[in-house]
Amino acid sequence: MTADPWDVSRAALYRDGTWHEPFRELRAKAPVHYVEDSDFGPYWSISTFDPIVKVESLPDLFSSADGITIASVPPDGVRTPMFIAMDRPKHTGQRRTVAPAFAPGEMARLSADIRARTAEVLDALPVGESFDWVDRVSIELSTQMLAILFDFPWEDRRKLTLWSDWAGDVEAMRDPVRRQDRLIHVRACAAYFQNLWNERVDAGPKPDLISRMIHSEAMRDMDPLEFIGNLILLIVGGNDTTRNSMTAYAYGLDCYPDQRARLEADPALAPSAVSEIIRWQTPIAHMRRTATRDTELEGQSIRAGDKVILWYLSANRDESVFPDADRIIIDRPNARRHLAFGHGIHRCVGARLAELQITVLLDEMAKRRLRANVTGEPERVAACFVHGYRQLPVELSRY
Question: What would the pLDDT profile of 269-309 be if each residue is shown by its tens digit?
């Protein structure tokens, strides 16, 4: 525990679901607040909507190149470059390589398969018996999608979940033992994908992400650390955003049964509900930027080299933008303004795919008139970066 009650990097706040009040106070009293001492060192905490948009709109002043999480790489650590943690122009070329995999035409091509796999998963679930929604639905659907994007061996697809959990664990960075465990898993991931690269390097172009990298000018000559860094980005981004929003659908609508009833009565509200659920959950709680020179933000003097933490989680509860922000309102008029996917040049490249997967889940649940009833408290991720769930016990019923 640190002395500053507004140090919102503390893992217990997210494990226990008690992050709301400190962020509420920060938004009201200190939207740009300096934390002198935390488990991750000193940092600036940006907690309201407009200043975050301003920082994201100035990528040359607020750089991503020193890392995108509050956790810095320790002296004995290994830095894995990735395009989300790069500045222009290198960021631009690498992002353009993978972006076509998430273009509207690809979404149309994948749509039927996503629907068929979602139907298969839902039809295998028990009705009237308790089970873990995270494992049976959220992880399974998101991991299947990752396996398809990478053309990854189907029987090994749960390795992607394991690697994602370790790669996104910022708490491991400050524990020497866990840091070494994390490194073991990252190396295993690297070795596996290096084999896939070697198998495909002489093959013709295909739509999977590895083939797109191999046949692109911007990424074909990546060194091994940059290759694994970009893989980690795509695995964590593809896994955690979708997985935790799918769980938030079950948990959040159980918390607000009036909104669940409205969605059940009018399934056409699903696209709006998806944006609202993503806003309400905000699966990635923050991103980090580093000031490249002395500047001022909301009257506060930020020095070159300072960590600037953009709390998307808090911005999405900013009442000046989202009235009654703590509630899910499935037809909220401005739900799509949420910052859960970021803003500016680093906005999530896979946002369309995440929205498509979650929308299909809502559609297929509605077709079967299935309702997820939460039967116990969720087990949450104890970390300030990935904002999500380990387990959620539910029981399905018909309506």
Answer: 999 999 999 999 999 999 999 999 999 999 999 999 999 99
- Please determine, for residue 2, whether its predicted confidence score (pLDDT) is greater than 60: no
Q: Is 32 helix (H, G, I), strand (E, B) or coil?
A: strand
Percent of the chain with pLDDT over 70: 98
Dist. CA 286–CA 239, nearest whole Å: 16
Mean pLDDT on 249-261: 98
Q: From CA 102, how far away is CA 63, in angstroms rounded?
A: 25
CATH code, 11-398: 1.10.630.10
Q: Are 32 and 38 in contact (CB under 8 A)?
A: no
Residue type, 173: M
Cis peptide, bond prior to residue 271, ω within 30 of zero: no
Q: How far apart are CA 59 and CA 84, in angstroms?
A: 11
The burial class, CB within 10 Å (0-12 / 13-18 / 19+), for 60 is: exposed
Domain ranges of the chain: 11-398
Q: Which helix (H) or strand (E) holds 273?
A: helix 270-281
